[in-house]
Specification:
This protein is of the alpha+beta class and 449 residues long. The protein has one domain: Outer membrane efflux proteins (OEP), CATH 1.20.1600.10. It has ten helices and ten strands. The strands form four sheets. Strands 2-5-7-10 form a four-stranded antiparallel beta sheet, with helices on one face. The chain has a two-stranded parallel ribbon with strand order 1-6. Strands 3-4 form a two-stranded antiparallel sheet. α2 runs antiparallel to α4 and α4 runs antiparallel to α5. The radius of gyration is 41 Å and the shape is elongated. The two termini are 56 Å apart. Keywords: Cell outer membrane, Membrane, Signal, Transmembrane, Transmembrane beta strand, Transport.
């Protein structure tokens, strides 16, 4: 029994040691999110439906062909299909027919439906691609949030390690009577505050990882993590372009704009289709039919009635009918007129939405451009502040080490450095993300390399 437990514990330990948390890169996160997002899958199904609608529209241009066959048996009173006279006997009948029809003209509605179906498939593709663009931006933002929180946590832990050394040294000085006990209490308070920062930092890392995992629709949070890497400010000349230049470039490829333009084209087709109902519809048909009945009587060459066989009757009684049908709309309770008016209103709404989307895109690019400049300056200012706070801290430490500064003033200098370090990390990743957003609107794929 003891040996069995030992073996089980050993196997459990091996399993734990072999299980490794997967560390995801930004590119892996983006690709996984695009491939596994439920909304993307729904939009892909909408795209497949649009392709089927296109097939339906093309099929409406083709002639129809249908066959029909029936067999029946009548007992008692019935009409003899040969001479249309009443009879009171048992009759077995077979009817076979085939028909075909085609619409020759319907106000070009079928042709316009084909064009509309093609446009709708393209519009659904633009909508799908626009969703993927949004997912890429959201995942990149969430990914950088995790990296930023991890860097801040590393800073908190490094600061706490330094404070532990100061705490150890201060204890020794207090025990030797060099510094008062109040200085030790101040350092202990600083250490406790830094421990709280570490706890909060760990919570922020966990929450940001959960948020990223949820964007990827991954529920195994414990085995999910991002790659351990730090990102520097990537070189970029995007600010060499004015917001107007970036907007003009975005107008040539942005999927949201392409989607809005496609909706205008779809609305224009809807107007054409609705107006087609004012025009006549011309269709043609052809039908072949034959029949058999065991009560059929026809005279032979000598004038003697007889019942032909099934095969003979199918050839004797077959026939073809064909013709054309013209439907001219005269009055339909204003339904056609109202449908045209509705489609024209839909067209105007689509045009207004396109203009609104253009304005939104221009405003977004203007804001993104301002954000890049703002966060670039904020990051530069944070670095200068950190440099100054670090020098002040080093000077304070020298004075504290020789007893020229009390522990409270020294802890304040240390706290200012910690805040400056946190600001540098925050503004750095804020700047990187805003920079990538602006580049994204210029057609540069999201990458941190």
């Amino acid at each position: 029994m003891k040996n069995s437990i030992t073996i089980l514990l050993a196997l459990f330990a091996v399993t734990l040691s072999s299980a490794q948390v997967r560390q995801w890169t930004l590119q892996e996160c983006v690709e996984y999110a695009v491939e596994n997002n439920l909304t993307v899958e729904q939009f892909e199904l909408d795209l497949e439906n649009a392709k089927i609608d296109k097939s339906d529209a093309v099929g409406n241009l083709l002639p129809t062909l249908n066959g029909n066959a029936s067999a029946s048996s009548n007992t008692g009173f019935s009409i003899n299909p040969t001479n249309n006279l009443p009879t009171n006997s048992t009759a077995n009948n077979v009817n076979i027919s085939a028909s075909s029809s085609i619409t020759l003209f319907d106000g070009l509605r079928n042709i316009n439906q084909v064009h509309r179906a093609k446009m709708n498939a393209i519009a659904n593709q633009y909508r799908l691609d626009d969703l993927k663009d949004d997912i890429r931006l959201n995942v990149a933002n969430a990914y950088l949030e995790v990296v930023s929180n991890k860097e801040q946590l590393k800073t908190f832990r490094a600061q706490y390690a330094v404070t532990e050394q100061d705490l150890k040294r201060t204890k020794e000085l207090v025990e030797s009577g060099v510094v008062p006990r109040g200085d030790l209490l101040e350092i202990e308070a600083t250490a406790a505050n830094q421990e709280q920062q570490i706890i909060n930092g760990e919570g922020n890392v966990l929450i940001s990882k959960v948020n990223l995992a949820q964007l990827l629709q991954i529920t195994d949070y414990e085995n999910f993590d991002v790659a351990e890497e730090e990102f520097d400010i990537p070189p970029s000349d995007i600010l060499d372009n004015s917001p107007k230049v970036i907007f003009d470039k975005a107008m040539t490829f942005r999927n949201d704009i392409k989607f809005s333009e496609s909706n205008v084209e779809l609305a224009e087709q809807d107007v054409k289709i609705a107006k087609g109902a004012y025009l006549p519809t011309l269709s043609a048909f052809v039908q072949y039919g034959t029949r058999y009945s065991d009560v059929t009587q026809i005279p032979d060459g000598n004038g003697v009635p007889y019942t032909p066989s099934l095969t003979d009757q199918l050839w004797i009684f077959d026939g073809i009918s064909y013709g054309a049908q013209l439907n001219i709309p005269v009055f339909n309770g204003w339904s056609t007129r109202n449908n045209v008016m509705r489609s024209q209103i839909g067209l105007e709404k689509a045009k207004l939405q396109l203009e609104q989307d253009k304005l939104d895109l221009e405003n977004t690019i203007q804001q993104a451009y301002v954000n890049v400049n703002t966060f670039e300056k904020a990051y530069a200012a944070a670095e200068k502040t950190l440099e100054a706070r670090t020098l002040a801290y080093e000077y304070a430490k020298e004075r504290y080490d020789v007893g020229l500064m009390n522990a409270f003033d020294f802890s304040q200098a240390q706290a200012r450095v910690e805040n400056a370090q946190a600001d540098v990390i925050r503004t750095k990743y804020d700047y990187i993300f805003r920079l990538k957003i602006l580049e994204f609107y210029f057609g540069i794929p999201i990458s941190l390399n």
